[in-house]
Structures are given as C-alpha cells and as structure tokens.
Amino acid sequence: MSVNGETSSITGFDASDHQPAFIFTPSAIEGAPERPAKRRRVGRTSAPDPTKHAQAFRFERLLNGLEDTECVGLREELFKRHWAKTEERIQSILGESNEDTLTKVTSFVQDVAPTEGSGIVPTGFIVTGPNIASQGLLFEQLSERLKTEVNGPVVTLRSGDAANLKAALKQLIRDATNQRAVNEDEGEGFFERDGRKLLNYDLEILHGFVKLHGSKRAIVAFQDSEAFDPGLLGDLIALFSSWMNRIPFVLLFGIATSIDLFRERLPRAATKCLFGAQFDVEQTSSVFESVFLKVIAGSEAPLRLGPALVSSLIERQHNHVQSIQAFISALKYAYMCHFYANPLSVLSDNERDSKSLLKLLQSEHLEAIRMLPSFIKLVENSVEKHEVTLARGLLEDDKVLLREVEKALDSATQRVITILRTMHVLSSAATGPVEKIDLYVRAFKGSLSDSDTVRAVLDSIKRMAPDALIAFIGRITKAVENGSPELDLEGWLGEETEFLKEITDIQGEVTSLVEEAVETGKPVRSQYAIHSQGLRTTVIAQKVQLSYEKSTLSKQDIKYTALIDRMSNLLKEYFTFEHPQDLFLNEVWLYDSLSPYKEVFTPGSRLAIEQSLSAPYHYLPGCKDTGDAFSSSKPATAILYQMYLESGSLINVSDIWTAFFSIVGGEESEGYDERTALMLFYRGLADLKLLGMVKPSRKKVDHLAKSVWKGL
C-alpha cells in the first residue's frame, strides 16, 4: 500500500475513538498549559471552631422573631436533656430484652466441648426474626459479654467485610490479633514462622495468637449470615473444620428466617461439620410494646404523643417497617419538632417550679396562649358555667391568665397520672389479654369509657358468680396497691380512699351473702345470670297456650343483683374522665401533629421531583424565577423536562435538541457553544432516563418513548 493510501485510510480517525468514555474538556481551559502553575505557599489554616459550628445549628427565634434568647436556649436545652434521658431508657430496655439470649449463648460457648479429631465445629444459631436492624445491637452486646467472660478472641463478621475468602480471613485475623496488646517480641512469634513472614490471611497467625495467650475459644460470629455468599460460608466452615485440632473455633450465626432455610442454602459438606444449639431472640412486637409503655405512656415520660400521631406510628410499624430503630428515629423527630417549633415548650421544664417558669413568659407568649384550642375550650366552659367574669378576665387581663396557667402547670402531672392509673386498673380488671397501646390511644382520645374493653368488663361483672366477683375486686385492689412497673406507677392505695372503700364494702357484703348461701344450701345468683322469664304451657279446650312468667328471685339474689349494679356503676364512673386534649395547656406536654411526620417519614418522592424540575428556583439559589418556563437560567434537566411535558408519547431527539440549543446556545456571550450545549443536552436526557421518564422507542430509532405523565 502506498503512503498516500495509508494516509487516506486514516482520514477522519479520532484518537479518542478507542476510549470507552468521552472526556469533555470545557472551551475555557482548552489552551491551558500542560504544566500546572506553581502553587503559592499559604499559611496553615486554623482548625474549625466547634462553637461556631454549633451556633450555626441553634434553634430559631419564634414569635415572629421576638422570642427572648433565654427562651430559645432553654428550648434547645430541654430537647437535648429530655431526649438524652429518653434514649438512655430505650437502650436500657433493649439491653434487658436481649439479656436472656446473651446469658444462654454465653453459657453455651463456655460449656461446649469441641470433639478432638472429628472436625465438628460447635455452632450457635441465633434466630433474630425479621427485625434485621436489631441484629447490630444484639451482636454488639454479645461481643462485649463474651470478651469479658470467655478466654479467647471474639470476632464479628458482616457480609460487607467479606467479599471473598481472603478478605474474610484478613478481617478475622486482624480483628482477633488486635484485641490484646502485645510487644514486638511476642508479635513476631505468630506473624513469622521459620524465618519467613506469613501472609495476612494465613490461619497460622491466629493459631500462634491463640497458643501464645492460651485461649480456650476462638469465637467467630456472622451477624447477617444470610447475606453472605453460600459458597463463601461453605469454604469458611470447611476451613475452620480442618483447623479444629489447633484452633478451638466456635461459630455463631445470626438468622432472620429459620434454621431449615439457612441449612438448605449451605453446601451439604459444610452442614455436616456443624453441631450446636438454637437460640430464639425476643420478638420485636414485645420489645416494641415495652419501649412504648416506658417511653411514651410511662409516668416519667417528658413528652406525650397524641392519639393521631401514635396511631400513625403504630400503623407504619406494623405494616411497613419492623425495626425498633425506625420507631426510635420517628420518636426523636417528634421531640425535635415539639421543642423546635413550639415556643410554649419552655413550660415543660420539670426542674423549675411554675412561678419561675411564669417569669420567662413575654407578652407574645400570652398572646400565643390565647390562640390555643385548649384556651378556647377553657373560655367556652367558663361561659357555660355562667362564669362570665372569669371568661372576660382570661381574654383581657394577663394576671388572670397567668393564674390559670399556674394552676394548669401544677395539676398537669397529676391529671396525666390519673389517666395512666385508670388504664392500669382497666387492664388488670379485664378477663382476657388487653392491647395496652390501644388503651393509651383511646384514653388520650377521650373515648376510653366507650371502648370495647370497658364494655366487656362491665358485661362480665353481670354474669359473675359471687366467688368470681370477690376475686375480681381483689385484682383491682391489688392493682391499686402494687402499681405498674411497666408504666412507672407506684401504688396509690392511700390516695383512692373513697373508691377503695366502696369496692371493699361491696366485697364484704358479697362475702356475707356467700356465707348465708352456704348455711341455707341455696346458691346466690344475679338476675342477669339466670333466665328472668320462664315458659308456661296451658291446655284449655283442647288448645295449647304458651305464656311467659317471670322467674322468682330470692332475697339473696335481689340483694346480690343490687351489689352487681352498684359495682358496675362505680367502675363506669371510675373509667370516665375529662378529655386530655380539652385540658388547658395540654399543648405544652402533648404533641399530636401529623404533618411534619408524614412529610419526613412518608415522603412523596415523585411529587418532590416534579416540583423541583418545574420550579428549580425554589431549591437553587443561583436560579431566578423569570416567569419563562424555558429560561436559559434553569438547569438543563429542568429545561428538557418542560419540553418533555409539552411533547407527545414519542419525542423526536433531533427536534428537542434543536429547541434546546436555541434556548441555551447562541452567538451572544451568555450562550453556550454547540459542544458545551450538546454535553448539557446529553446529561439532561440521562437524568430523565434515570428518573424513569423516558426510554428508547422500539417503533422509531431516533425517538424516545414517554413513560410518565405528570400527576398520573
């Protein structure tokens, strides 16, 4: 071939054609020198000031910016203080929930005896259930417990740490050898062998470490074992089995499904090497109820959640997530919203008395109080009771309002405790299991007296025999005397004198009736437990007539029926109390706003994306609202999105490129050149494709198919 032929054959060849990706170089730096300019020496930058960083995220001043700085600081302090105590209690509950499992697993590891020469690896299968997020806390607690009570290294492996066999062994050996400090002479003993340095994934290193420290066990825990590759697990188990005569391995597997499903995933040769026991972790539902009763419903809870928010949290917990950590995050967000957005939350400081809290209030605080629904309810009740002077004073006189605020703050805690005590008595009086979370929702909704639980208790009383009624009253008395540890309620036997006197009198009278019945030999029954009418048959002139007659009741039966009615009315009155959301200033200690929770924990991602593409100036400070939907100041993706909205089901790429370049390009200095505009065009189309709005069309090669319509 001639030289001219060779030259012509490579005409049009670009040196970048062989590259897998196109490298874009902006025109502004095309003529830049190859050698970078020498950088100027600058002084050492000072370390960032943590106080300035903290000040940048302080709470905002509310009440139209008129809130005093002391109140702003107090709200932030209350949030941090209350949440720190709440989080501490949550961690304590989670720790106690795993205590039984930790004890059993630790005992298994200590007592299990590896069989020499058999290659069988002692194994513990920890069935955690579907709550995978709780596995981290469980295995962290298990690692700490085993390190203190078992002589040997404890290593926890996760699926992300073990991409292959070498990576898993490296992680295992590194974590095991770093658990005890060794000097250089000791360290060389197990990192080298016969003058040669061992590879960092050689189990001979772990063997030397175990031999040096006289370890009785080498515990390897697989936290999310079902996320590991089955082949990798099989190789690790086979390798551990071959080293059992030198390293006393004990394996622990965290299983979310079941042992049978986990065993089916493993190679058969690996399952033959395992022998051990199963440990069941306490289920999420019981742990969730314990956390709820202590942290939200407990008497020491600094903030109550309202029924609407609790119902939404419970629905999300049961239907969408199974993680305790997700519930804790939602609870923390509720705390943050309450103290961040409510200027009256300063009144929830339980370390100050009501008089010192009133000194913090400004005139703007009083104006905010007069806008509360509970204040409106207070004024309406005053008018209904013909206390017009008080109602006028609440509206016009700040001193009268401050007196009512002080009364409300002083009585708030006692009123909440009264509600919790009623819940505890009701759950103790119920004959069957009771959903205590549902009781909380109904109690703070003000509908506890009309609930199915109360009706079931009252109906069961009418059908009770005397002995059952005596035992029933005994349960109520015991509940009042002992209180409720799960609600942090102490016994209040000395405070319920009137109620206890009434039920004790009923119990005594029923006992007397039972003693009389034993003497006479006739049982005592109420009119609700026997048929009040009997069927009577009469034959007159060869005709049969049926009639009803009332059953006769003895004096003891009539007296017992009266006692039943008296007990029923007494309990019905006891289970009735004022609506918590009608209490004055309940907004200080009760948070029941749904909108912030729904916006954060149930976000509308598609709506947010469409809004950001339609109006990017709401999100980007450099983008201005010019009133033109096709303004060149908008990002390329937003411009293409507007064209996308106005197009049909098929989009001609050539036409949309021409329209796009006419907007962002041009001969003016502000427009982009064709090369830069093409790069922006491709990037914008890639964004739309990533969002699932367009896809290649099968009908026409040079067209894109529209896959999403706005608002549908």
TrEMBL record:
| GO terms of biological process kind | DNA replication initiation
Q: Can you say where in the cell this protein is located? A: Nucleus
Q: Please give an example of a GO cellular component term from this record.
A: nuclear origin of replication recognition complex
Question: In what residue span(s) does the Origin recognition complex subunit 3 N-terminal domain sit?
Answer: 20-347
Stretches the record annotates as Disordered: 25-53
Which part of the chain is the Origin recognition complex subunit 3 insertion domain? Answer: 360-593
Record keywords: DNA replication, DNA-binding, Nucleus, Phosphoprotein
Q: From which residue to which does any coiled coil extend?
A: none
Report the superkingdom from the record: Eukaryota
Under the GO molecular function aspect, what terms does this record hold?
Answer: DNA replication origin binding
Per UniProt, residues of the Origin recognition complex subunit 3 winged helix C-terminal domain are 606-709
According to its UniProt entry, what is the function of this protein?
Component of the origin recognition complex (ORC) that binds origins of replication. DNA-binding is ATP-dependent. The specific DNA sequences that define origins of replication have not been identified yet. ORC is required to assemble the pre-replication complex necessary to initiate DNA replication. Binds histone H3 and H4 trimethylation marks H3K9me3, H3K27me3 and H4K20me3.
- Say which family it is in: Belongs to the ORC3 family.
Q: How does it assemble?
A: Component of ORC, a complex composed of at least 6 subunits: ORC1, ORC2, ORC3, ORC4, ORC5 and ORC6. ORC is regulated in a cell-cycle dependent manner. It is sequentially assembled at the exit from anaphase of mitosis and disassembled as cells enter S phase.
Protein name, UniProt field: Origin recognition complex subunit 3
Q: Which organism is it from?
A: Amorphotheca resinae ATCC 22711
Q: What lineage does UniProt assign to this protein's organism?
A: Eukaryota, Fungi, Dikarya, Ascomycota, Pezizomycotina
